[in-house]
Amino acid sequence: MAIKKVLVAGLGLMGRGILEVCAREGFETYGFDVSEEATKKALGFIESGLDKRIKKGKITEEDKQKLLQNITIVSKLEDAKDVDLAIEAVFEDIKVKQDLFKKLDDILQPNAILASNTSALPATPLASAVKRSDKFIIIHFHQPPTIMRLIEVVRALQTSDETAKAAMDFCKAIKKDPVDIKVDCPGFITNRAMIPVLNEVIYCLYEGVASKEDIDLAFTSGFNWPMGPLSLADFIGLDTLLHICDDLHHRRGGDKYIPCPLLVNMVAAGYYGVKSGKGFYDYSKK
């Protein structure tokens, strides 16, 4: 099936980026969030980012207006009932996601695909929450979605070949590089491998091995990473990182996913990273 209209449900750090990407590539794009404040922040963030790109000469004012014209914010899901694809980008809690998918299942037109942007939760239990389980799939964008090209596409046991093909074609249409995850496994590829690395780096800071600046420099200079791992953790969200650690530890066992006490304490203190204005680094003045 051809995807022309897209709904992004949840306009936080990830959702607003997904909204921009879809609109940028010409899709009729709808945005929904239960929080009016989150909606205003999302639109402000998108406009601010576009203005910065105009100043750098990367896009024109016409490009900006064309992108914004592709975005429609809705206050209720019923106003987006005719979309071909709904992408959920709410908090990493399986019950919260399942409840949202049940609502979408009841409201959206019968051929619409339901997709989750979850970074670690399993596809099959999410698909089991809806009647159209054959039309469920995970489309996992990476942060920030406006820049990162990778998308992990994960099938549930119930996902049809038609749905999987439509999802892969959509990812290519928005100029991303989709990776076909063949097994519905905890952490997929990237989080399964990356979370232990980020957790160990946080342990290095916790144990006083080096300063946060030098730890990040070791990775940007030594491994040619575009940003250091502690900066990356702040960008992902330390609360999200902790949730993934806990989930992977529960589902995979062993000790490599046990979160560092520093990570646990920072989340308890409300230091979530970029989204809260403070994490390993201070973003309050940026």
What do you see in this structure?
With 286 residues, this protein is of the alpha/beta class. The protein folds into 2 domains: 5-181, 3-Layer(aba) Sandwich (Rossmann fold), CATH 3.40.50; 192-275, N-(1-d-carboxylethyl)-l-norvaline Dehydrogenase, domain 2 (Orthogonal Bundle). It is 46% helix and 13% strand. It is built from 11 helices and 8 strands. It has helices spanning 13-24, 36-55, 61-69, 94-107, 123-127, 161-173, 190-206, 212-222, 229-236, 238-252, 261-268, and strands spanning 5-9, 28-32, 71-73, 85-88, 113-116, 136-141, 150-155, 177-181. It has an 8-stranded mixed sheet. Helix 6 (161-173) links the parallel strand 7 and strand 8. Helix 1 (13-24) crosses helix 2 and helix 7 (190-206) crosses helix 10 (238-252). The protein is globular, with a radius of gyration of 19 Å. The model has no long low-confidence stretch (mean pLDDT 95).
